[in-house]
Amino acid sequence: MKLPKTVAPDRFAIDDLIDDEATRIVVCCGSGGVGKTTTAAALGLRAAERGRRVCVLTIDPARRLAQSIGLDELDNTPREIDRIESANGGALFAMMLDMKRTFDEIVEQHADPERAQQILVNPFYQSLSSSFAGTQEYMAMEKLGQLHREADAEGRWDLVVVDTPPSRSALDFLDAPQRLGSFLDGRLIRLLTAPARAGGRAYMKVIGMGFSIVASALTKILGGQLLGDLQTLVASLDSVFGGFRERAEQTYSLLQAEGTAFVVVAAPEADALREASYFVERLQQDAMPLAGLVVNRVHRTEAPDLTPDRAAGAAEDLDEHGEHALTAALLRLHADTMRVRERELRLMSRFTGAHPQVRVAVAPALPGDVHDLPGLRLVGSALAGEQPERSAGPPRRRG
Amino acid sequence: MANPFAGVRLHVVTGKGGTGKTTTAAALALSLASGGRRVLLLEVEGRQGIAQLFDVPPLPYEERKVAVGIDGGDVHALAIDPEDALYEYLDMYYRLGRAGKALRRAGVVEFATTIAPGVRDVLLTGKAFEAVRRKEGPSHVYDAVVLDAPPTGRITRFLNVNSEVAGLAKVGPIRRQADNIMGLLRSPATAVHLVTLLEEMPTQETIDGVGGLRATGLPVGGVVVNMVREPLLGSAALAAAGKGTLDRSEVESGVAAAGLGGHAGVVDALLAEASDHAERVRLQKAERRRLRSLERPMLELPWLADGVDLSGLYDLAGVLRGQGVA
C-alpha cells in the first residue's frame, strides 16, 4: 500500500500582510489554548518593528497579553509599549478589553445623564455587563470598531490586531451583531419595552392580542418582579441598543471590507485543526477575507531525515553492544520527537488536503512559554519563515 | 488507594483549552462507572466532542448509553441543547401548553437561548442539577454525573450564574430554582476538577481558577495533570544537557558506532533536542511544585503517543482508577 502523499500548502507570508499599508485590521481567531493571544501579540510586535503603528486588542480575561509583553496592567485604554526596536517610526500600543467599562461607556454616550444613571445602577444591568457570558462578544465588536475609528480620527495607530473572545465557539464573535439585530427587530422587544405595568387595555393596544398569552406566560415563569425589572432595563436601554447595533453592523461590514484580514490560529492537534477547518469554511461563507492559517507549537528537529524507526533501531543496536548509553538515549529522544512531529505534519496535511487554497505559517514548539518581547520576536520571525536562531544554551529564566 | 472524591455525585471538569478537558471527563466517567455503576456524562459546549471520543454518531438531546465501564457499569451521555432544555424545564414546572408555542413565536426562546447573555448558562446548569437529583423509586437514576464544563477562564462565571439570578429574582419559582442549584453546586456532593498540563500558562490558569472557585465558595476537587511524559534521559544526562555540557565527542563516536555518521548534522540535532528536553523537564518540575501548593488531590494521566482513541480512553480510565477514583 502506498502512503498518502504529504500535501504541502503554500507558505503564508505574514510580512507581506503586515507590511501592506492597506491592511488595517487583523483578526486572530481559533479555538481555546492554541496561542491566539501570543500570535496576535507577535504579529503586532513584528508589524511595529517593521514600521507600522499598531494597536493590539486582547479580549481574554486572563492577563496573558500583559504577561507576554511585560506590561503590568492592561485596562480599557491602549498603552504604548516603549521597549520595542523600531527604527522607522513604528509604534506598539496594547489594551485589554474591559467588558463592563466598555458597556458603561456606551450607556453614558447614548443616554442622557439621568437615564444613564438609572441604567448603571439597575441590578439587571450590573449582572449583564459584568457577570453574564455572551456580553463579551458584543463588547469586543464594539471596541474593535472604536479602535478602528480612532485610527482614522487620531492617527496614533493605523493597524489594529485583535484576538477573539474565548467563546464556546470561535464563531460567536461573528454572530453577535446579527443576533442583536434580530432581537431588536423582533416582537419580543416590543413586549419588553411596552409600559411595564400598564396592564389592561393600554398594554393590549401596544402589544396586540397574541401577546397577552406570551405576557402572562412570561409573568408566570419569571414572576412579576423579575419581568418588571427586565422590562424597566430594556425600556431604558432601548435608545442605547439602537446606536450600539448600528455600529455593530458597521463593524461587521468592516470585517468584510478590504483592509481586514483574518488569521486562523491552530495547534497541530486534531481538535484545534478541526475547529480551524470550521472557521475557514465559515469565513468563506460570510465572504470574510482569510489571510492564512497559523499553526503554533509544531515540533521541530534539525535532523528531519533521521527517521524515528532508524533512530530507534540504532539505539537498540547500541544497547545490545552495551556501549554509548548516552547516544542511545539521545536517539530514543529523537525518535520520540520525530513521531510527534510526523503525527503533527499528518494532521496539518489533512487540513491542507481539505483546504488547499489556505496558506500556512508555522511557529515551532518552544520548551517554555513566551512571556517577553524577545520571545514574541522569535515567534514573529519564525512565522515569517526566517530560521529561528537557536540560542547557545537553554533559555534561562530571570530570577 | 483511598477514593479522594468519595461522596461526590456531580463531577465538574474544567481546564484551559487544549489541555484535554473532554478526554479527562470521559475517562473519569468510565472510571466512575467501574464495578457496575451508572454514570451520565454531560456536554454543554455544543462541540459533540464526546461522540467523537466514543466513536458514536452525534448525540441528540437524549441520554444514550455510549460505553460500558471497566468491570461492568454504564456510561450514558447527553449533549445538552439549551433550547430543548428550556422546553423541558417549562414542561416540567409550568405545563404551558399552547403558551409555550406562543413564546417561541414571539422570539422568547431564541432570545433566551442565544441572544440574552447568561440565560444559556442557567439552562445548562439547571439540566445538570436535574440529572443529579433525578430519582427512580427511592434511588438516584445516576450514581454520578460528570459535566464536561466550559474552560477554566469561564468556569466560575458559569457555575455561579444562578447566584446572580438569585440576586435578581427576589421571590418566586426562578429564585427557588436558582437557590436549589447553588445549594447543590456549593455542597460536598459537587467537586470541580481542573485539568492542566505541566506548562506555564495552563498552570497559571489553574491556580487562578482555583482562586476564583474558592472565592465564590465552589468546591474545588482535584487537579488532573494531563499528558505527563516521563523524562527520556537519566538525571545526570539531564543536568548536563541543561547546562549545555553533554560530552560532544562521546555523542560523535556513539553516532559513528551506530552507523549514522553519514547523516549530516545529527550530532548537533541530538544535542539541541536534549537541551530542549532538559528545559522542558525542568519547567515541568517547577509547574508540578506550583500545582502541589494548591493542596488538592493531584491525579496524573500519561501522554499517549498516538493520540486518544477508544482504547486509549479505557487506559486513561484505568489509570484514574489506579489512583483511587472509582
Concise account of the structure shown:
Chain A has 399 residues and is of the alpha/beta class. Chain A has helices at 14-19, 36-49, 64-69, 99-110, 113-121, 123-130, 135-154, 172-185, 187-193, 200-207, 210-222, 224-256, 270-285, 308-320, 325-354, 373-383; strands spanning 25-29, 53-58, 79-80, 91-96, 159-163, 260-266, 290-298, 360-364.
How would you describe this structure to a colleague?
The complex is a heterodimer of chains A (399) and B (326). Chain A is α/β, with parallel strands linked by helices. Chain A is built from 16 helices and 8 strands. Chain A has an 8-stranded mixed beta sheet with strand order 3-4-2-5-1-6-7-8, with helices on both faces. The model of chain A is unreliable at 196-204 and 389-399 (pLDDT under 50). Chain B is α/β, with parallel strands linked by helices. Chain B folds into 2 domains: 10-229 and 303-322, P-loop containing nucleotide triphosphate hydrolases (Rossmann fold, 3-Layer(aba) Sandwich), CATH 3.40.50.300; 231-294, no CATH class. In chain B, 51% of the residues lie in helices and 16% in strands. The radius of gyration of chain B is 24 Å and the shape is elongated. The chains are: A alpha/beta (399), B alpha/beta (326). Chains A and B meet through helix 6, helix 8, helix 9, helix 11 and helix 12 of A and helix 4, helix 5, helix 7, helix 8 and helix 9 of B.
